[in-house]
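Dear colleagues,

As part of the handover before I leave the project, I'm documenting each prediction I ran so the next person doesn't have to rerun anything. This entry is a single chain, and its sequence is reproduced below.
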Amino acid sequence: MNKIIGCVLSGGFVLLYYIFLFSVILFSYNEMPISMFLLFIILFLVPIIGIVCVLFMRINEIRSGEEEEAKKY
């Protein structure tokens, strides 16, 4: 259980960092062209989606016991 909490906390902190960084960049440019706005959205959503996917994969790995199997080798 502690390993799952650690994964969620570390993933959550990284997600909060990306969201904060995105909001700072977004609100610092008042008159941003739509193409630049879409580029910022894409550049910040790709890592966020990746972090969430890896977080779910890690939680499934911990729950299934694959981590304990890897310690044998």
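The chain has a mean pLDDT of 84. The helical segments are 2-28, 34-64, 66-70.

All the best with the project,
I.
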